[in-house]
Design goal:
The chain is mostly helical. The chain has one domain. Strands 1-2-3 form a three-stranded antiparallel beta sheet.
């Protein structure tokens, strides 16, 4: 009875249905897929209280993987089970984020369907990688932050509560992978920017109540609130995730050693790595010029199973046009939701032009690619020229393309050379 009237009803349903969907045949491929080669041994070291050799990343994601293995064994299903769970968490989070951003259940459901048919989430929910857990925490952090972004204003207590949840989730995001530092600093910088614009009261011309930085936004918030929610909480949560490592050989034993571990980790992120056959560059990602095969294994003499990490071409390419539409709405209308979408897409994508990593891969585009669902929803629900039927046609095409690509997303058994039927460009091979 409670669930029937609960605002969490749809997210909970989305979570269970999508998790069940992600778990279908998740035992394939039968061997380690892409970075599972690194993270599964690391998770087993955590389980056996041995020195963790994967010191290039924070511990939380590997601990979650360790729990998954502890529950279901050191086998493909065990490696990937909690990734599927976090995939469901991510989809429920995307629905909630869209609901808080657009204040429309129809728009939120549209975003959920587009996200599910965009290939990215499906593939990432079926592999034991740190990004699978990281994005679950990140999307919910954005969902709570978007809920605080109300033009009509909210009480100081309500805003601080939402910000505290955001800060905790950002700490968990960073504890999975350091990419979480980007949205953490991005949100903190955005809050300070809004406060500055509100105090100066300048932006193009006289501010309007509908502006994305409206004077009613975050009333009563103090710098102490900002410091607690976005400095002390994220850093505190991040530090707490290291507690199990204090009990393992080679782990930090003091605060100074914990800080030194971060310096060592940073050095590991910058170390030179030999070229990889599927490496790519940021300019390649929006146009799908170089996706990545997570797995490509022979099965018998004449069959293969492969997993291609690639976005749905329709969503990826039309999503770029949707971003242009959002930019136009931002310039002419100073729209709150358009600003949110543009800001976080540019943040998640643009950062890779400056992050000093020699080797980059298409899956780094995963967080930015998720923002395209929001951009498309903005086009279909903020443009009066699009009636109900264009949305249905578009969703039908997205789902159809997902079904078309499904065999090489889900590692179905295929004749050896049949995979070439999906290779629209030579660079995809």
């Amino acid at each position: 009875m409670y669930l029937k009237n609960s605002p969490l009803k749809i997210p909970i349903i989305l979570f269970f249905l999508s998790t069940a969907f992600f778990l279908i045949n998740i035992q394939f491929p039968r061997g380690a897929s892409f970075d599972e080669f690194h993270y599964v041994p690391s998770a087993n070291q955590i389980l056996t209280w041995k020195t963790n050799q994967n010191w290039e990343h924070p511990p939380l994601g590997k601990m979650i993987l360790a729990v998954s293995i502890w529950l279901f064994g050191d086998r493909p299903f065990g490696w990937r089970f909690l990734s599927a769970v976090f995939g469901g968490i991510t989809l429920a989070g995307m629905y909630t984020l869209a609901l808080n951003l657009f204040r429309s259940k129809k728009a939120a459901l549209f975003v959920a369907v587009v996200t599910l048919s965009n290939n990215l989430l499906f593939v990432q929910a079926r592999i034991g990688m740190l990004d699978s857990y990281m994005i679950g925490f990140l999307i919910w952090a954005l969902a709570f932050f978007a809920d605080s972004w109300r033009i009509e204003g909210a009480s100081q207590t309500a805003t601080v509560t939402l910000w505290a949840r955001t800060g905790i989730l950002l700490g968990l995001t960073i504890a999975c992978k350091w990419f979480g530092i980007i949205p953490w600093l991005g949100i903190l910088g955005l809050i300070l920017l809004v406060r500055t614009l509100q105090s100066w009261r300048v932006f193009f011309d006289t501010p309007r109540q509908t502006d994305w930085y409206s004077q009613k936004l975050w009333q009563g918030i103090t710098f102490q609130d900002i410091a607690v929610c976005f400095i002390f909480l994220p850093l505190g949560v991040y530090a707490l995730t290291y507690i199990p490592l204090f009990l393992t050989p080679g782990g930090p034993r003091s605060l100074s050693e914990l800080i030194q571990a971060q310096i060592t980790m940073y050095g590991g992120q910058l170390r030179v790595i030999s070229n990889h056959p599927y490496m790519s560059y940021p300019l390649d990602w929006p146009l799908l010029r170089r996706p990545i095969w997570y797995s490509f294994d022979k099965e018998g003499k004449d069959s293969i199973r492969g997993v291609l990490m690639i976005g749905n071409p329709l969503i990826m390419w039309s999503g770029m046009l949707a971003l242009i539409y959002c930019l136009r709405a931002l310039v002419h209308q100073r729209a709150r939701s358009a600003f949110f979408i543009i800001y976080f897409y540019v943040l998640f994508y643009g950062c890779w032009f400056f992050i000093p990593r020699r080797i980059q891969f298409y899956y780094y585009y995963y967080p930015a690619g998720m923002m395209l669902s929001l951009a498309l929803a903005y086009v279909f629900f903020r443009n009066k020229d699009f009636a109900t039927w264009p949305r249905k046609v578009y969703l039908g095409l997205c789902i159809s393309l997902f079904i078309l690509f499904y065999p090489i997303l889900a590692a179905l058994k295929l004749p050896s050379e049949s995979f070439r039927a999906w290779m629209l460009f030579k660079s995809w091979i």
